[in-house]
Design a protein that fits this description.
Elements (H helix, E strand, L loop, with lengths): L6 H12 L18 H22 L3 H11 L2 E5 L4 H14 L17 E5 L4 H12 L6 E5 L2 E2 L4 H11 L8 E4 L2 E2 L3 H10 L7 E6 L9 H4 L4 E6 L22 E6 L4 H11 L5 E6 L4 H14 L5 E6 L17 E6 L6 H17 L5 E4 L2 H9 L2 H9 L8 E3 L6 H25 L1
Parallel strand pairs: 1-2, 2-3, 3-5, 4-6, 5-7, 7-8, 8-9, 9-10, 10-11, 11-12, 12-13, 13-14
Amino acid sequence: MSTRIPPEVWDRIFEIATHVPYILIPEIFDKSTLIGDEYNDIYLPALEDAFATKRNLVLVCKQWWHLATRYLYRALLIDDRHLPTLLSIWSTLQSYANGNGAVPGAKPLGWWTERLDVAFCGTAAGEARLADVIMCLPNLAIVHLDFGIRLIDHASISRSIANALRQAASSLRVFDWSTWSSDPAIPLIVREFLAELPRLCILRCDNMPWMDGVIPPNILSSVTTFSVQKMLITEGDIPVESRPGDRRVSLREVIISAGQNGLESWTVFMRLYGTFLTSVHLKMYDGYWDVLFHPLAMIKQSCPNIRRLTLSLIDFSYLTRDTLSLPPIEYLGVNMLEMFHDKMESESLFSALAILKDTLPTLRVVQLTYPDNVDRLLTVYQEVAIEALETDLAECPFRIEDHNGNLLLERLKAVEEPFCYIKYLFQSADAFD
């Protein structure tokens, strides 16, 4: 006797089978501080892997096609490797929008798309086709656009894409425009588009859209996380009447890309908005420990309400007693932008945590935010990590977690036990010989 599984059960199975953590609303807000290159490096490969599962599901049978297609189109990823599929995607979306292939009364495929990631340096014709695709996606909540370096004659393309996105303006919550352009018209296009996004929460731009440093009231009232790669503003650019004052400000988190250049602009920015911030992510791309001291001092001085701080560094050796004069934070995220190269780098990390144990009583959580750093500790520097956690950090008042919030020591010991048994077997075999 066969048993038919109800469609609702299949729907739940497909949802679990295709789920990728932290890529959709509301989970993405938990990783807001990583929005940008780090987020893309961690989560976009997992999203791409999930596409293979989704494609297999919809090819099983006609019933599964109708049940699982919404998951196939929930997130779309278009890059240089998938450009031939751009025309196919547009053709399919158009066909379903016209009622061809769909179950009568069913919503068109584009209605289900919540996320769009685009990363390619395509032709004008390809980007025009992309605008056509976007027009079929009325419920986009997350958009990540990276067209590489734009030439000065590409303003018309950028404008066509911005115009296409306007039909999803009311649903857009996360917008990442990671495109550099020498065209002076591009910032104006971006500013005009941003003015029409009433529910935007996370905003990332390559360049500061507002050259005077003054964020418009509609952005301040909705955006909670702001990230910008390059900023060039001066104190003299900002009229007194344009400062936030008593206006409603939702901004609580900024992601700073700092080094030997640009800190002056960030200092001005922090004078304007630092009092509103509770979270700062500082990315340091210059390889000098003393460069870290100045932005940390700026944050400590400008952000009296800060509770969360994330540091992305080239080397953990820059975390010294001199640089670790931190504000009274409760959460500290740390990661190294490159893979550990030697034992000394992992030792520097745990030495820094030992300093914080004695100097920062407000700290409750330290998290290694980059999976590659955690994997390196679990596989190569496991003994160093366990020894540090069980000796210098044994009475630590704060949790030390991996990127998923698990206790690091528990992860290390879970990996250690099988290796200890294998090592015991080899030692026993040697003794027997």
